[in-house]
Amino acid sequence: MANQVTSYLTLIQVVKAFMNERGEKTLTNMEKYIQMAIEGYSDMQLFEINTIDVAYLTVNPDTLTAELPTDFVTMTKIGVKVGDRMWTLTMNNDIIIPRQETICPLPIEEVNDQTMIEGGYFFAPHYRYGRYTNTLYGVGGGFNIAYYRIDMNRRVIYFHGNVPNNEVILEYKSSGVKAGGALVPRDAAPALKAYLHWKTAEYDFRIPMNEKMRKEQLYDKELYKLKTIECSFNITEYLDNQYATMSQAPKR
Amino acid sequence: MTKAQWIELIKRNLDGGDAPAELRGRNHEREIELYLTMAFDTVLNRKQTQTQEMLADMGKDSWRYDSLTKSFVLDILEDTTRNRYYSTLPVTVMSIINNNGIRMITPTQDEGVAFFPRWQTDTFLMDGLDVNQMVGLIYYTLEGKKLYYSGDIDCHWKQVLAKLVLKFNEFELTDDIVVPDGKELEIVQVTLGLMGAKAPMDIVDDGTAIQTTK
After folding, report:
1. Domain spans of chain B?
2. A33-58 core/surface letters (b: 16 or more CB in 10 A; e: else)
3. In Å, how far is B178's CA from the nearest CA of chain A?
4. With an 8 Å Cβ cutoff, are A27 and B60 in contact?
5. Does A184 have pLDDT greater than 50?
């Protein structure tokens, strides 16, 4: 409804609210506070808030590489689109990461010439005698249509195998901050403000130690509240979980 | 009290007060204006305690400068040598902690969008940090009487609105100058003291009623 406040705040709104709480009336420190808010929010994104971002990455067909998003911290899934579902790819740390200093872009042959030793073969999903067969046949796990390896230093993903349409779906934990800023969930805003109060006190030599400790405790308290919300589940989720293991048998 | 009245007040005080005989009637109005300028700067920016300094650092005492603030529309010009955009301040700004003499720089018609102040070394220190990669934030750095802007300010604006705290000598004679916080007595005392009429009083705001000479 139009007369309700939004459930998200921008990073700058949180910093403004924090400055209001402090009674600060100058913009001199605003840039410093925004930077601290970014660091605090990134920290919360990683450890406290259950959110993931999704990026559709284009794979360079020559080098079989895709660039990681700038806000990428760690990934939860890499896959390709099959129908309306995601087919996850398999990590393979045997893919060689190219390191040639003078060649740019990365040399094609270093990626494509790798020979993957795989002890199995792959069936495309199909029907057999009226039964849907959608996976590998007769082999153990670890085989896939394509494999990946992440090179964090150059922020690139290397692929080997068949990547349909040269597009992969990346689900990842984000730093939470993009070029346009960040949207902070309203339930996380008190914790972020408490973080700013703590950090500004922490590095001010004029503030006594007990005050710094108190602000850290207040931050911990707000984090606990945030975790309580983030980790709770509703009645529907609970019932789904309960019923998932139940089955009914015919009466004899 | 207008600026002219301030000057007249000090002049009369010197002429008829306890100023040394050789000074009486010999103070030019321009001279009084400059001493008043020093007195304003001294009294309004005096920090006696660490608490006062912290409050000033956070701008909590900045309300006292609002009555000494005027708005100006500044053109944005290009410095081709440095490949930067800048504006020239039309007046000398009162030197206040954290360069708070420049109260606000905003677009001319949207004061909800503020540009952020930077000290000169901040440009280097902040470069490459996450905050510097956020789009839409514009910074300004004071260099003498010039404000240098960061980023693509020219794409959006050709002029800015500047709210500046003026030094006393920058006001017109007819401008009303409101001194905040009951500081009139201190300003008169400091002005007279600077002009040699009387030693400056001990005007430490320490909660005692005892006024002693330094």
Report:
1. 3-60+169-194, 66-165
2. bbbbbbbbbbbbbeebbeeebebebe
3. 21
4. no
5. yes
